[in-house]
Design goal:
Strand 1, helix 1 and strand 2 form a beta-alpha-beta unit. The chain folds into 2 domains: 105 residues, NAD(P)-binding Rossmann-like Domain (Rossmann fold, 3-Layer(aba) Sandwich), CATH 3.40.50.720; 119 residues, 3-Layer(aba) Sandwich (Rossmann fold), CATH 3.40.50. Helix 1 crosses helix 7. It has 251 residues and is an alpha/beta fold. The protein is 37% helix and 12% strand. One of its GO terms (molecular function) is oxidoreductase activity, acting on the CH-OH group of donors, NAD or NADP as acceptor. It comes from Vitis vinifera (Grape). Keywords: NADP, Oxidoreductase. InterPro entries: Epimerase_deHydtase (IPR001509), NAD(P)-bd_dom_sf (IPR036291), NAD(P)_dehydrat-like (IPR050425).
């Protein structure tokens, strides 16, 4: 796709979207964003647009004329508000004759929030979907502030933004793509981090949880030429950034 095409990013002040906006600006793309961000190249190539995620038609003006839309914004409340907000964005996209592609970012909850996993078949792919009934029960637990622990799926912000741009620009990209470089339970994660960064106050072990192991098949994404970083490299980058910004001493 033409690198100079105009794209729109929802929720641009959010953690995921701000990295996406940054990569777009550094690549020279013109773009609009759903809220204010202070990034290199913004003065020349970034236009800010206000839109209400929960208002039908609220994105019509912002999206009109754009060639691509990256939807990352989501309300804190899951299920109905998140679904309706996404539908509002997609309805606005449908009204734009210039639009060539929409990239929607979701969490692993769209795949793994279910209680009918077959332990003999832990590998999940793009055909796997969460259970609506299970999500409704999960929402009730969140409202009641129950502790939710389990498996940790890792994809760094740089990898997420690179993936989003790849599936937007690649002519053969279509449908869903799972993006998860590693799956570790709480105990595996704490063991890895405490051994790799012994000077940090990280527990050496966590209590084992009786939950099914879930692994994602990312071969579809890799078929586009995408390469994941290792979990060790991602955390090394994270720690180095925290040290550089003064949030941590030398590790």
């Amino acid at each position: 796709m033409d690198q100079k095409m105009k794209v729109y990013v929802t929720g641009a002040s959010g953690f995921l979207a701000s990295w996406l906006v940054k990569r777009h600006l550094l690549s020279g793309k013109w773009q609009e964003a759903g809220t204010s961000v202070g990034l290199e190249g913004a003065r020349e190539r970034l236009t800010l647009a206000r839109a209400d995620l929960m208002e039908e038609g609220g994105f019509d003006r912002a999206i009109m004329g754009c060639h691509g839309v990256f939807h990352t914004a989501s309300p804190a409340e899951i299920l109905v508000p998140a679904v309706e907000g996404t539908l509002n964005v997609l309805r606005s996209c449908k009204k734009n004759p210039s639009l060539r592609r929409v990239v929607l970012t979701s969490s692993t909850s769209a795949v793994r929030a279910r209680d009918d996993f077959d332990p003999k078949i832990p590998l999940q792919d793009e055909s796997s979907w969460s259970s609506v009934e299970f999500c409704e029960r999960l929402q009730g637990r969140l409202r009641n502030a129950d502790g939710l622990e389990g498996w940790n799926m890792f994809t760094s912000m740089m990898l997420h933004s690179a993936t989003s741009i790849l599936v937007y620009e690649h002519e053969d990209a279509h449908g869903r793509y799972l993006c998860s470089s590693a799956e570790l339970d709480d105990n595996e994660l704490t063991s890895l981090l405490s051994a790799r960064y012994p000077s940090l106050p990280i527990p050496k072990r966590s209590d084992a949880l009786d939950i099914p192991y879930v692994e994602f098949n990312t071969s579809k994404l890799k078929s586009l030429g995408f390469k994941f970083k290792s979990i060790q490299d991602m955390f090394d980058d994270c720690i180095a950034s925290l040290v550089e910004e003064g949030h941590l001493g030398q590790v």
